[in-house]
Structures are given as structure tokens and as C-alpha cells.
Design a protein that fits this description.
It contains 14 helices and 17 strands. By secondary structure, the chain is an alpha+beta fold. The strands form three sheets. Strands 1, 2, 3, 4, 5, 6, 7, 8, 9, 10, 11, 12 and 13 form a 13-stranded antiparallel beta sheet that branches. Strands 14-15 form a two-stranded antiparallel ribbon. α9 packs antiparallel against α10.
Length: about 475
């Protein structure tokens, strides 16, 4: 009989109650070039990579991108741990007004700018209003900071090359960027009050954690309270035999502040092959012993049980992947942190996540008495993976595809419509392109003229000094030359 009380007591021993809020942040020291010291001789570096149009690609293009992403995973160093993080955050109203809305200039067109801004605000509220960012964090053990800097410089060049082959860009984060990233997660709704001045910190003798940590932390058995927000940490407990590549996209499609992290620890290929051969030998030994017992009972025509035959096939496939198909073995775990405004909404969001995981025949589990540990692991800080890891091959991890669709939300751009996949607004500035020309094509009555007029109005309202010249031989629109339209 299983002693439930004994098991719960054992789990509670793992639950560490922090002495202060600052103790919840597992960072010992920071350096100006963006390197964090997590513990003795353990350093981490974070990179941000841009999204690509994977969801709308054809099947052939998806296959090519999948193989290139697998090559990226195979390039990970066996002496380091890599964390792939997808971070969802709500669109900040102040940033939206600063970067997207048209400012007033004090002329007769201000009333039209107000009307245009109301339209943009209604679009942002009615749509997803979620900004998704993607990060890659590398953690390595080195003797000192100089060796860590040399290692990360080499890793940065390799990552840039691999991501460029996929069509993405890999951007190295400095200390201010990393601190702002953590601050915006811990202090939701206070993103605009972030300030960072390392000299001022040294002068005042303050800890860098004082500027990023929340006011309060309270960790329960299966959720935590962070200020006035409620959060919960999950991990992927059980995997299906077949998982579609859109599972991660659907898990992160929830309209909430959310973090999904995939920790990847590469295993040296020779160690993986020896482990596979050991498992294969164990499976064959079990089958031989079973056949010997059947022969002793004069049952010479007995068929191997299904589970033993399946284990034999799996062990053979694993060795073939390692030796013939140039795949690697990884220890991996997928964790998710979700933040809600209340405990009731947190329970509703939990059920939504569990429903998605069950749809793909997987099982998400709450981290009992390990919410603090799970939170620190999920953040793009660089902690090592937890005990609930699973051995996966390259293709098995590549199925958790972090790419979905490329967002276009440029500062001081023009509203062009809505992204079909993510439901976010498309804000673009064609002047920033190498070739800013465009064509508007369509059948009669599809709205070509209206689209052109809408862009003309947007340009005239945003830039009062813009020269707008309309040449219309067929007089489909009012033929005129508008020079310095705002005047």
C-alpha cells in the first residue's frame, strides 16, 4: 500500500521558502556585456532571435526549415545547456501610443489624427494584443569570466550563422536588455518605470535585484502570488508517440502573459551510442529469458509479447538514428509559466492549457511544491534543467518548433491590416526597406483605390512635411499635386 503522507512529506522537503524576495532571483553577479554569474563558475548569456513565416509556408518549405532547425539543434555544444524561451507579454498602452499612434502637431488635421488613433486603439483592443518574443540562453561552466567571454564570443558567431540559414536573426542582449526582460515579467504593468544605471547602483550601494524583483512573492503548493498577480508553473510530464509541429504554437496562443521554455542538454554521441547499445542488450536479454521460460514449458511456438517487440523496435530505431541518420541525443524538459489577474482566471487558464496538451495526447502537470524552482528554470536566466527530463533525439526536439509567423510592427509605421495567423496589427514603414516601392494588385471592385487613398491619408497625417504626388490619367481619383499637405 502506498503511503501518501510519506510521499507528501518527502515532496515538502524539496519546497524551499526564500528568506527575502531577492533570494527568489538566482543571479549572483552581472557583467556589463550581458553575462550573468548564476553560481560558482556557472555563466549564462542570452540572445534574442526573430520569428519566421513557418506556419504559412508550403509543405516543402516546412520540411526544409525543419531540417535546418534540426541542424541548429545538432550544433549545440555538449558542454553547455541551451534554453529556448517563448515569452508572451501584453501590449503596453504607453508603448503603443508612443510607437504606433500619430502624435498631434497643432494644425487643422488634429481632429483627423484623433479619429485615426481611435481606430488604431480599437484594432489593438479587439485583436490579440499579445507580443511574442523568442530567446535562446546558453549556460556554461568556466573557470573565470574571461574564459566565459571567449566561449560566448565563439558561440555568438555560430548562432548567427545557423539562424541566418533559417532566415532569422540572432541578436545578443546586453545587461540592460536582460534586466529589462526580467523586470517586465516580474512587474507586469510597470514596464515604463524601468531605469538602469549601473554607476548609480554602485554609488548608492543598492543591489541590482532591487530594481527588478516584485514587491511580494508567496509560493503555495501548486501556484504562486507575485505582487497582485497569480501564476502557475507546469512541466510536460508525458509525451505522445507522435506530436505535430504546431503544438508549441497552440500552447502559446493563449491571450495571457506566458513563458514557455525548452531546456536542452546535449549528450556526447559516443555516450548516447553506448547507452543505446546497453538498452538494446537489456531488451534482447529480456526476450531471450522469456523464450527460455516458454521452451522449458514446451511452448516452442510462443510469439514474443507486443510490449517486448515494441521495445526491440524502439531500441533499433534509436541506434539507427544515432549511427545512420546523424541525430543526437538530448536531455530535455518543457516548462510553462502562466500569469493571470486572479486565482479564478488562473484556474480557467490552467484548464485551457491542459485541454491543449490532451488534444495532442500529452500530459501537462503542475509542479507540486516546486513553483519557485520551476519559475527560475522557465525564465531566460539560464538555470539547468530539473529532474523531470526525458531523453529525446534531434527530430523529437525539433517537433517543438518555436517559429510561427513573422510580425511586422515597426516604430512610426502605417497600419496595413491584420496578421491572419497571429491576429496582430501589421504596422510597417516602407521607407526602411532596401526598396520601398509597392504595387497594389486586385480584380475590379476589390478596393485598390481605397487602399491607396488610405495609405495617402496615413502618410499625410503622420508626416506633415511629406510630398504626396498623385498621377491619375483616368481620373479614378481626384487628380492633384499635394505638396506639403499639412500646410
Amino acid at each position: 500500500m502506498i503511503n501518501i503522507k510519506k510521499i507528501l512529506k518527502k515532496d515538502k522537503e524539496k519546497f524551499v521558502i526564500p528568506k527575502s524576495v531577492q533570494d527568489c532571483i538566482p543571479i549572483k553577479a552581472i557583467y556589463e556585456d550581458g553575462i550573468f554569474l548564476l553560481s560558482n563558475n556557472k555563466y549564462s548569456k542570452c540572445f534574442r532571435f526573430t520569428d519566421i513565416n513557418y506556419a504559412v509556408a508550403s509543405d516543402d518549405d516546412k520540411t526544409k526549415l525543419f531540417l535546418k532547425y534540426s541542424e541548429l539543434l545538432n550544433s549545440f555544444d555538449t558542454g553547455a545547456t541551451t534554453k529556448i524561451t517563448i515569452l508572451n507579454r501584453k501590449l503596453n498602452k504607453i508603448d503603443f501610443e508612443k510607437n504606433v499612434m500619430i502624435p498631434k502637431v497643432g494644425d487643422i488635421l488634429d481632429e483627423y489624427r484623433d479619429e485615426y488613433n481611435k481606430m488604431l486603439m480599437s484594432k489593438s483592443i479587439g485583436n490579440n494584443s499579445i507580443i511574442q518574443e523568442k530567446y535562446l540562453t546558453v549556460t556554461v561552466i568556466k573557470k573565470n569570466i574571461e574564459e566565459a567571454r571567449t566561449y560566448f564570443r565563439r558561440i555568438s558567431i555560430d548562432l548567427n550563422t545557423k539562424f541566418n540559414q533559417i532566415g532569422s536573426k540572432c541578436i545578443e542582449l546586453n545587461t540592460e536588455d536582460r534586466m529589462r526582460l526580467i523586470h517586465d515579467f516580474y512587474r507586469i504593468g510597470e514596464e515604463n518605470i524601468f531605469t538602469w544605471d549601473s554607476r548609480d547602483l554602485l554609488r548608492k550601494g543598492h543591489s541590482f535585484k532591487d530594481y527588478i524583483c516584485p514587491d511580494t512573492f508567496s509560493f503555495k503548493d501548486d501556484y504562486f502570488e507575485m505582487g497582485d498577480k497569480f501564476g502557475r508553473v507546469f512541466f510536460l510530464k508525458d509525451y505522445a508517440n507522435f506530436i505535430r509541429d504546431d503544438m508549441v504554437s497552440e500552447l502559446t496562443d493563449l491571450n495571457r502573459n506566458l513563458i514557455l521554455s525548452i531546456d536542452v542538454l546535449p549528450i556526447p554521441k559516443d555516450v548516447a551510442i553506448r547507452l543505446g547499445e546497453k538498452v538494446r542488450l537489456g531488451v534482447e536479454t529480456n526476450i531471450t529469458n522469456w523464450q527460455r521460460r516458454q521452451n522449458n514449458n514446451n511452448n516452442f511456438s510462443a510469439i514474443i509479447p507486443y510490449d517486448m517487440g515494441q521495445e526491440r523496435e524502439d531500441s533499433i530505431d534509436f541506434l539507427n538514428d544515432m549511427t545512420a541518420r546523424d541525430q543526437r541525443m538530448f536531455l530535455s524538459v518543457l516548462t510553462i509559466v502562466i500569469i493571470s489577474d486572479s486565482k479564478e482566471k488562473l484556474d480557467e487558464d490552467t484548464e485551457s492549457l491542459l485541454t491543449v496538451s490532451r488534444k495532442y495526447l500529452c500530459q501537462l502537470a503542475k509542479m507540486k511544491y516546486q513553483q519557485l524552482l520551476g519559475l527560475n528554470i522557465s525564465l531566460p536566466i539560464g538555470n539547468l534543467i530539473i529532474d523531470q527530463n526525458r531523453s529525446l533525439t534531434t527530430e523529437s526536439i525539433a517537433v517543438f518548433m518555436p517559429f510561427r509567423v513573422q510580425e511586422i510592427q515597426e516604430e512610426n509605421g502605417i497600419y496595413y491590416g491584420q496578421n491572419v495567423i497571429s491576429k496582430n496589427m501589421i504596422i510597417a514603414d516602407r521607407r526602411k526597406l532596401l526598396n520601398g516601392n509597392s504595387f497594389i494588385l486586385g480584380v475590379s471592385g476589390s478596393g485598390k483605390s481605397f487602399t491607396a487613398k488610405n495609405e495617402i491619408v496615413s502618410i499625410a497625417l503622420r508626416d506633415k512635411d511629406a510630398d504626396i504626388i498623385i498621377i491619375d490619367p483616368e481620373r479614378g481619383a481626384t487628380s492633384c499635386i499635394l505638396k506639403r499637405y499639412a500646410h
